[in-house]
Sequence to fold (145 residues):
Amino acid sequence: MPEMGGASASASSGAGADERPKEDSKQGQLVAATGAQGQPPAAGKKRGRTAGDKEQNRLKRLLRNRVSAQQARERKKAYLTELEAKAKDLELRNAELEQRVSTLQNENNTLRQVGSAPLTILSLAPRAWRLADSVRNIPPPVLTP
Fold:
C-alpha cells in the first residue's frame, strides 16, 4: 500500500524545485533562483548581486569603517589632551589654595597669640593715638541759621 502523498512529495522536491523563487533571509525579499543549468532568470525578474558587487560593497564598508575608526582615535586623543590640561590646571589651583590655607593658618595662630596676651597701657597707646588723630581730622559741623 502506498503512503499518503509519498509519490507526489518526492516528485515536487526533485529537479523542478530549483525554478521556484526562494526567499533571501538577509533581505526578506524573494529572489529568483537560477535554472538547473546555472542560467540567469528570465527577463524582468530582479537579479541578485554579483560577486563583484558584493566585493565592491565589502571594500567600501571596510574603508568607511577604517575612516570612522581613525576619527574615533583622533577624538579620543583630543579628549585625553584636554583632560590632561584640565588636570594640570587643577593641580596648580590646588597648590595655590594649599599655600593660601597655610598662610591663613599662620596668621590665625599669630592673632590668637596676640589676642591672648594681656593688654597693657603701652599696647593700647598706639591705638589711642590713631583714634585721637582721626578725631582731630574730622571737620567741625557747619551750623546753618
Remarks:
- Residues 6-17 have pLDDT under 50 and may be disordered.
- Residues 26 and 134 are 95 Å apart (CA to CA).
- Strands lie at 22-23, 30-31.
- The chain has three helices and two strands.
